[in-house]
Design goal:
Layout: E1 6-15, H1 24-38, E2 48-51, H2 62-70, E3 76-79, H3 86-99, E4 105-113, H4 114-122, H5 147-151, H6 157-171, H7 176-195, H8 208-212, E5 217-220, E6 222-223, E7 233-242, H9 243-249, E8 258-266, H10 281-294, E9 303-305, H11 311-321, H12 347-362, E10 365-372, E11 377-384, E12 396-399, E13 411-422, E14 428-436, E15 442-447, H13 450-458, E16 465-470, E17 475-478
Parallel strand pairs: 2-3, 2-4, 8-12, 9-10
Antiparallel strand pairs: 1-7, 4-7, 5-6, 5-13, 8-11, 10-11, 13-14, 13-16, 14-15, 16-17
Helix pairs in contact: 1-2, 10-11
């Protein structure tokens, strides 16, 4: 084996339930030391420290503060942007640099303390954390929402993903009730995985019926218990090294996990610009590239973890790779973002760490996927206890061409997808539509009348002809 072959030899996860808990810097340090300890690597010898963007707190120098805590002087440092694909992009970069001989070791870590932030907020106190950035930097997304999305208040994932969910539902001819029942059947097994995961935030097995009935909607048709739980205190880290360094550290061969191949692809950035609102063009191409680079197929995979922030993310993945959502292998090794926890951009570090532990114990191949923004960015990574394959990189293997978005429009249109936004009291507040225009473009619209909101939740609205009227700022739909 080439001594520059990258392998994963250290992992760590931490979940803190006592409130208030530690700040992100404390969590970073804890999982960094634990992962390095498992890797038998002194932390001061780390060549690279890379951190996933934290939503909890803006530090003046995130990587520098952690390096100081560890007593390390890494020659390579990186701090990601906001995205559920960020962990895999950092892992992929580290693996590529190790394979090129530029690095011998790399730590990739992430931490969120949003549950602690909530605890302080509820107590009416300011978060007493260290080294704040001054001035506070801009939010770490790659690009802000489209002006038409901002005007129509379509930027929360619970609304954008719900719109794609209704579009898929209608395209398959499913009724509203059939979709909800199917969602419960798909996600209930995930709660059982979470119940057995000591790092999971929610560790209670639930029945399909419990998940989709008796709970308030947050972005119709999604109930609170079928979406990612974001206010968690969780951290994870992985350590990658060259095979040569693993040999020198005395790491047994059966404790090494290899990134056999991975790929990155993109759908359109704006949901309304997606050619097929309920399907992903990019997932199939991204998965195909990852499997090809790994020299493996879906039937060769022993365990899977599909990114599960919302049901539509699971469904589009299953549709694209032709996987039965009730496959005997399951869809997750952690319990998924709604039950194991969805710590902002960090989740793929948790799924990767858990997958690595499972593969070490059982040997074989595992698939870990990531999703960024509004089902825009996709990563597919094949991990294995058998070296081989071709790494890949972050160059998109596919980039979808967008449909034109029309900001303001008066006239007839056809509903392509929709949601009804609900307040914390469970009351429907407004509808948000994505509509097809007669000339082939797309637009957004609000639904404001109470009786129309009730109608939208009682029967299928996708495919219905509506009329939009613009007030110069937003479009309002009626039928």
């Amino acid at each position: 084996m080439d001594p520059r072959t990258p392998c994963l030899i250290g992992t760590a996860q931490r979940t803190v339930r006592e409130q208030p808990g530690p700040e992100p810097l404390d969590l970073w340090e804890h999982v960094a030391r634990e992962a390095a300890r498992e890797a038998r690597l002194p932390v001061e010898r780390l060549d690279s420290i890379q951190l996933v963007y934290t939503d909890s707190w803006q530090y003046d120098s995130p990587v520098g503060r952690l390096a100081d805590r560890l007593g390390a002087a890494p020659r390579h440092r990186a701090y990601s942007r906001v995205s559920g694909t960020a962990p895999q992009l950092l892992i992929g970069e580290a693996a590529g640099r190790i394979a090129a001989g530029e690095l011998d070791s790399a730590l990739i870590a992430g931490a969120e303390a949003l549950a602690t932030r909530r605890a302080y907020r509820r107590a009416g106190e300011h978060v007493p954390w260290s080294h704040p950035a001054d001035p506070k930097p801009p939010y770490g997304w790659d690009r802000p929402p489209h002006p038409a999305e901002l005007a129509h208040e379509l930027f929360l994932p619970v609304h954008t993903y719900a719109i794609m969910e209704t579009a898929r539902r209608a395209s398959l001819g499913m009724s509203i009730n059939e979709e909800m029942v199917d969602r419960g059947r798909m996600m209930a097994p995930m709660t059982e995985v979470a119940a057995a995961n000591p790092h999971a935030w929610r560790r209670t097995a639930r029945t399909p019926e419990e998940l989709v009935t008796g709970h308030r909607f947050i972005g119709w048709p999604y109930t609170r218990d079928t979406v990612a739980v974001g206010e968690v205190d969780q951290a994870a880290a992985v350590v990658l090294v060259s095979a040569g360094l693993a040999d020198r550290l005395g790491v047994p061969d059966d404790q090494r996990v290899y990134l056999r191949g991975w790929a990155y692809g993109e759908d359109t950035w704006e949901v309304a610009a997606r050619p097929a609102l309920g399907a992903s063009q990019a997932i199939a191409r991204t998965a195909e590239a990852a499997f090809s680079r790994a020299g493996l197929g879906l039937d060769d995979i022993h365990a899977l973890d599909l990114y599960s922030c919302f049901a539509i993310a699971l469904r589009q993945a299953c549709d694209a790779i032709k996987l039965d959502p009730l496959d005997r292998r399951g869809l997750t090794v952690t319990g998924g973002l709604p039950y194991a926890g969805g710590p902002s951009s960090d989740y793929v570090l948790h799924s990767t760490a858990t997958m690595a532990g499972l593969l070490r114990a059982q040997q074989g191949h595992g698939l870990v996927t990531g999703v960024g923004m509004h089902l825009t960015k996709h990563t597919y990574a094949i991990w294995s206890t058998d070296p081989g394959g071709t790494l890949g990189d972050a160059t998109p293997v596919f980039t979808a061409a967008p449909v034109e978005i029309v900001a303001l429009y008066d006239g007839p249109a056809t509903v392509a997808g929709y949601t009804v936004a609900h307040g914390r009291d469970g009351v429907a507040e407004k509808g948000i539509l994505v509509v097809d225009l007669p000339d082939g473009g797309r637009a957004h619209a609000h639904v404001l009348e109470e009786e129309l909101l009730a109608d939208a939740m009682s029967r299928e609205l996708v495919g219905r002809r509506v009329r939009l009227v613009s007030d110069g700022k937003v479009n309002v739909a009626r039928w």
